[in-house]
Amino acid sequence: MALSSDEAGRFAELLKEREDEIVSTWAERVGSTLRGRLSTAELHRQTVDLHHAVQGALSDGLSELSDGAGGELRALLAELSGSRARQGFTATETAVSVFALKDAVLAALDHAGDERPETLRDYVAFSSFVDQAALHTFDSFVRTREELIADQAEQLLELSTPVVRLWEGVVALPLVGTLDSARAQVVMERLLQTLVDTGSPYAIIDITGVPAVDTQVAQHILKTVVAARLMGADCIISGIRPQIAQTIVALGIEFGDIATKASLADALRHVLKLTGMKRQER
Amino acid sequence: MERVPILKIGDTLLVSIQIDMEDQVALQLQEDLAERIVATGCGGVIIDISALDIVDSFVGRTLATIASVSRVLDAETLVVGMRPAVAITLVELGLSLPGIRTALNVELGMEMLARDHGDSEPDDTAMQDGDDAAVSAP
């Protein structure tokens, strides 16, 4: 039920006349749900901003929040819910910041002692407008949260796949955490690029930090090894824990002629022995 | 048609592929290389594909054929400088280029050939040592 321009005008008038009263009731309602996690001054400032934005939008004859006149109000709501989301408030606490306007306006109407029947209709229309505003807030809240999660996932991906140079011509890739397809792809690309950049003919893939090895994880590791071989580097898999060794055998995973070692130290010793032999031969 | 130049460095023939590897170019290279190996009597061939963005199944097979042909002519073939993206694509396609030895770059390839020559008197050691020869293809 959309606001007609008359109704919008009347509410703009009401909001303007009783600004102090409405803002204080509103801020009080919001403050009681946030339980002191936001300072009173800050809350009051936000509420006043919102109040002005709502009043401005209504006096421009806004009927739907998605109208052009609602642009400023939408931006303000998005900003508010974004900051709430980042500060760790729940969705309910964020939405209440908008819903509390209804209570405040109702209290103001009661105070005015307006008993005309149209007032009820007006109020219902206004209420649906506030609902729209709250839904918009909720959407922005979810969007901000999702952006946060995506950022964190990306950071995690970068943090968890370092390729370290272990010795002259030997790089190590300590894998930590579960390998899914996306991570395996990143790991593979980074390892191969490092091989090219450093010109290292040996790579040790250490899976000490991988909690479980299933056929899919094994497949990813095998692909990485084969790709490295195609480029002319040899891979050694190390850090295989006893349970993982048993799982690998139980699943029937074949590592073929890929060297596997129990620990990173063993793998390094193995590589050094190979390169040492070559030095002597030369 | 463009041709790929073949350079002789000591006992090694160096082929650096800088152009798009079309099927005709690959076949021409195969012929040219066989002739040059016979003409020069070189013991090693290094094919540098670091400039190649795309290695399709035909080029892969041609490289394998070149390796086999040169082995018959007693020359060891190394494919060097494959890009990570190319390697990943080949693996995803299930092409592991069996029978082709690889090295990371030309320098490491030269070293590997020199090593092979150094201990090639008892000819089969490289085979028996298994993973000692840096990358004996599976």
Automatic annotation (TrEMBL), chain A:
Phosphoprotein found in the keyword field: yes
Keywords of the record: Phosphoprotein
Q: Which residues form the STAS domain?
A: 160-271
Record carries keyword Phosphoprotein? yes
Q: InterPro entries attached here?
A: Bact_StressResp_Reg, RsbRD_N_dom, STAS_dom, STAS_dom_sf
Tell me which Pfam families the record gives: RsbRD_N, STAS
Q: Which residues cross the membrane?
A: none
Protein name from the UniProt record: Polyvinylalcohol dehydrogenase
Q: What is the lineage of its organism?
A: Bacteria, Bacillati, Actinomycetota, Actinomycetes, Micromonosporales
UniProtKB/TrEMBL annotation, chain B:
InterPro entries assigned: Bact_StressResp_Reg, STAS_dom, STAS_dom_sf
Residue ranges, annotated region (Disordered)? 115-138
Pfam families according to UniProt = STAS
Residues forming the STAS domain are: 1-113
Question: Which portions of the chain have biased composition (kind: Acidic residues)?
Answer: 121-132
The protein's matches in PANTHER family, at most eight in alphabetical order, are given as: RSBT ANTAGONIST PROTEIN RSBS, RSBT ANTAGONIST PROTEIN RSBS-RELATED
Q: What is this protein called?
A: Anti-sigma factor antagonist
**Originating organism:** Mangrovihabitans endophyticus
